[in-house]
Design goal:
Helices cover about 30% and strands about 15% of the residues.
Length: about 240
C-alpha cells in the first residue's frame, strides 16, 4: 500500500514561545529498544568530537519511535542515525558544517550564519532554549528493507534542495526511480507523524517530539528542555 502524499510543510516554523515544562524523563538507549530498530551512529562513524556508538532519546519519544517501527511491513526496520547530542557534539558539528560552507566559497557573516542555521542549530548551553537534539526529543533516521537502506534520494545531512521532505512531491513528471524515492519518503513521514512526531521541512530524515518546534506545530507546551550531560535533567 502506497502512503498518501506528504502535505505542504512550512519551512519557517518558529520554536514555541511557551516555557518548557520539563518532565524529567530519563534517556533511553535505542540499540536495545526494539528488534525493529537498529542504530548506525553517523557522526560517531565520521569521528566528530564527543560522539558515542549509541543513540539516545527521552523515554516517551523512544516509546513512540518503537511504536512507529512496529507499523513497518515485515522485513523492514528503522535505522537511527542520530538522537540526543551533547553540547560538545553540537559544537563540533556546527564548526564542521561551517568549514564545509567556507570551502564552498561562502564568506563569513550573517548570510553564512543564516544558511548554516537551516541545517545545523547553533550550539547552546541554555537548557530553557535548547537546540532540538540537545533536548533528547529529536531523531534522525531512515528505513532499511530486505535489500538494505531504502533510497531516499539524498544522503543524510545533504545540503541541497533535494533534501527537503516534499522535494519529490513537487516533480511534475517524475521518473520511475523518483516515484520510488517519493513513496519511500512518504512511508517514513507518515510512520513518524502517526506516532506523534513532527518533521523539519528541509530534512526528510529529521523528526521531533516534545521539543519547542514540536510545541509550535502541535499547539502544545514543549516538554523537553536541554540535557547538557546524561546525568543532568532538571525538573521544574
Amino acid at each position: 500500500m502506497v502512503s498518501p502524499p506528504i502535505p505542504k510543510l512550512s519551512d519557517h516554523v518558529l520554536p514555541s514561545t511557551l516555557p518548557v515544562k520539563e518532565r524529567g524523563e530519563e534517556m533511553v538507549p535505542l540499540s536495545t529498544l526494539s528488534a525493529r530498530i537498529s542504530v548506525y551512529p553517523a557522526y560517531y562513524a565520521q569521528g566528530y568530537a564527543g560522539t558515542t556508538p549509541e543513540a539516545y532519546l527521552r523515554k516517551e519519544a523512544a516509546q513512540r519511535l518503537a511504536s512507529a517501527a512496529e507499523q513497518l511491513p515485515p522485513g523492514y526496520e528503522l535505522v537511527v542515525l542520530d538522537g540526543w547530542r551533547s553540547f560538545e557534539v553540537q559544537a563540533s558539528l556546527y564548526e564542521g558544517f561551517r568549514q564545509s560552507l567556507l570551502l564552498q566559497g561562502w564568506q563569513e557573516g550573517a548570510t553564512l550564519a543564516e544558511e548554516l542555521r537551516k541545517f545545523v542549530a547553533p550550539p547552546t548551553t541554555d537548557i530553557t532554549n535548547p537546540s532540538p537534539h540537545l533536548s533528547g526529543g529529536a531523531v534522525d533516521l531512515t528505513i532499511a528493507g530486505p535489500n538494505g537502506w531504502l533510497d531516499m534520494g539524498t544522503d543524510f545531512d545533504d545540503f541541497t534542495e533535494a533534501a527537503a521532505t516534499r522535494h519529490y512531491e513537487e516533480l511534475s513528471q517524475p521518473t520511475e526511480n523518483e516515484i520510488t524515492i517519493r513513496n519511500n519518503r512518504r512511508l517514513l513521514y507518515h510512520l513518524m507523524i502517526s506516532a506523534g512526531f513532527v518533521n523539519y521541512a528541509k530534512e526528510w530524515w529529521h523528526f521531533e517530539y516534545g521539543t519547542r518546534s514540536w510545541g509550535q506545530q502541535t499547539h502544545q507546551k514543549p516538554i523537553y528542555g536541554g540535557i547538557l550531560s546524561m546525568k543532568k535533567i532538571t525538573v521544574e
